[in-house]
Amino acid sequence: MEGDIELLPADLLAHIFSLIFSFKDLAQVSAVCRKWRRAVEESLARKERLSFSGWKVDDESAARVVGAAYNIKELDISRSCWGCQITDKGLYRISLTKCVGNLLSISLWGMAGITDKGVIQLVTRANSLQHLNVGGTFITDESLYAIANSCRQIKTIILWSCRHVTESGLIMLVNKCRKLESINVWGMRVPVDCFVSLLSISPALKIKPITQHLGVGRIWPVS
Length: 223
Known about the structure:
This is F-box protein. The protein is an alpha/beta fold. The chain is built from ten helices and seven strands.
């Protein structure tokens, strides 16, 4: 059986390995021989979406995998029950990879080990970004300033429970990101007057989950 597998062409092996979602299993497969290692690299290069959610990964392994998956458009490194160990160091290394300028979606949801330093480094290079989830993190206005200055294509952003973000950061974001369609502010410590100000800048902006308590007669459901 092993001999039969060895006879398979590299393209077919890459396709088979692309069906493996466990990074641990991919690492083991990659260690079998040079041909299999190249096939694993090819399988990663074919991916358009990469998710570490549900896996226990550290800075080094995450950056290595993202570097190999240079065609991805969506990157999800959200917190998982296994305790994702990615820090600012990991975000810095990911920011240097080939794919970062082409990323359309990034999720850092619940990553308590990251700060403005890592987020700023990442978003500054993610100029094509359209969707960002930084909910449940400890970022401040500094990250929003960087997003506002670097991610002018941003359409949706989730700031769920980002309690260190203030009115100043939100206003800067909405002022500069004219393509912004939706913003999730659930659990933030921002006065209602701030949201009225945001709507005066961008009347079509969907602010979730704020309701007609704003006095503007609109209801936006929680997504």
